[in-house]
Protein: F-box domain-containing protein
Amino acid sequence: MEGKPLEELNSIMNNDENTSMVRYNCLKRKVKDIPEDNKKMKVSYDYNNKVGKSNINDEDRENTKDGRTHLLFFPDDILLMIISNLNHHCIINLSRTCNRLYEVCQDHTLWREVHFCDNIATHTEMAIILKYITAETKSIHTKGYYRSGDSNKETLTLDWLTQITEKCPNLLSLSLPNHYIDCECINIQHFPKTLTKLDLSNTFVKNAPWNKSYFKDLCSIMPDLEVLILSNCHWFEPHSLMALSKCPKLNELRLDGCIKIKDCVAYCGLATRGGFKSLKTLDLRKCPIGSSELTCFASVPSIVNLYLESPNVHGISPGIAIDTPIMILFTNEPVVEIRADGHRGKVTCPRLKIEKLFVRNYKRMTDMSLHQLARDATFLKYLDVSGSGVTAGGIEKFRTLRPNVTLVNNSL
Structure:
């Protein structure tokens, strides 16, 4: 008996959409068409008086003389526990096999967190999500076709966003990586207003407005937004930093791989002057920013996690003279600030309480830099200098001076 039901379940869930209408070998009965009434059924097993009944007839028992316990012999509550371990691609395929599993797969507890992150969500699956989500749904994650073999397919529509907004009034997290976004149809105000996390990583935006930021008025549209992930969004423009800086609760901003963030000291200066008041985590890996831009972010006192990585593996000049701006993050000395009007002036930056720092692939990060970090970065707990110019001797000296700091260097 042990392990057999799960083996049978695996054989069912591995069928693709075109072959998922199958017979169970143990039951030898044909799958019937799901009646229209069943499609509206919402099953709640907490109040189901028939929990525990397996509904197996004599003919079924006759066909299982091998002594094994098969999947449909389990009561509904046990089936629900098993199915809850599957991803939603598999749950949808499983729901197509018979009426009983269709009903179990509709249970609202399975759709509180909807994750289609392992595979691309097809048009059919995007539509099925709308049938199953409820007011209890807190998180939705779907993956689009961008950067796949079928790069021209668009599955994210205005109607889909409108429906999840209406059906999920308590939605907190929405992740839409690799989707196409047509700005002529979908604007930022069309997204749910209740979000605390929005992930648009690896997306492709077309018909973007040339005269304003896509994130204009984001602070009032999503006032509770805490996490914004824009990794590898090549469409992201530096002037949008000013709109993002106004979000009152934004504490995590990931801009890694946004290759347009360069030569933008004016926008960085305006955004960081009184903005980003709650920002704790800033990811600028593989962004071709220069020393002046990094200096601007040194004026944001709330930052505790900073991620930097040279993008020169993509043929882009990093532009950072690493020693000076890195030390600015940890000292109170006046530094040069380039203002929007082109004039220069000196300003004193507060000493940042950075606890986690990545400085990867910067050859100008030397043993001297490491020694200064050991001396001045008093709050540092984790440091990654992989691919930098530090030597084994410099690392050993740092570990002697700061034994409580986790130092990572995968290049040695």
